[in-house]
Amino acid sequence: MAYDSNNIFARILRGEIPCDKVFENDYALAFRxxxxxxxxxxxxxxxxxxxxxxxxxxxxxxxxxTGFFRAVGEVARAGGLVEGGYRALANNGENxxxxxxxxxxxxxxxxxxxxxxxxxxxxxxxxxxxxxxxGEKSFMQGEGLQLASGAKSTFYFDMKPTxxxxxxxxxxxxxxLREIAPGAANxxxxxxxxxxxxxxxxxxESGNTPTPLRGLFVRKQPKxxxxxxxxxxxxxxxxxxxxxxxxxxDVTTTGGSVLKAVAAVREAGGxxxxxxxxxxxxxxxADNLGCEGISLTALFSASDFGxx
Length: 308
What we know:
By secondary structure, the chain is of the alpha/beta class.
């Protein structure tokens, strides 16, 4: 694999593409992955044109090699990853499925990672069961099915029968909570109505954890009476200023619906950097959210159901 000076990490280093930076010194830059594979997922890249770990250790000057690996450790310590444990991973070459020709080390943390990032047995069982339940209760195929965006499709996810079933509600909540690192959010919320059952289930399930979450939801239009607030669920003697909010959705297509919730929560002072959806139809939501500095985590994608 040859070095490509227009690869995404090279462009980030040149300041041509923004990143969610967590650390930088003379030797390295670290930033959050826009498509996290764990509750904490940080990328650390060296400042230099090095394809992979082999190229770097063979050709980089000693001070850069030392400084870079010290930076990896500093990122982990500064992020509070050491106590609970974390995984450092560098893919090298084709067989390791290296996608970007610039050395990068992944730091994963925030949940039990299992062997080589496999899900824990309990999580794997929950995921398999929820996949089957959605397939049974919520997934349909046919001609001319209309989506919330107004577009027509040959497949559709009506998540309500799954979300309102006792089993489905619990499975969704447990799987979402496994994606959230302790302390990563103050609130979990979403846009009415599709996200509301998800929010309620997650809040309830979080009560069994050391770091329970509070819930909120965003109205499409404020009520004409009462508090007339667009963001509901926040106590009257509090506000969202500086509070970390993770938004959820039942299904994402282009991300238009959840972006309305993002705008309302940010207008109220909340900090939104992440969305978790039960199913992503893979029709642009990740890219559209990424343009707003928000990462999308999907429990399932359309391809899990044999469609795309």
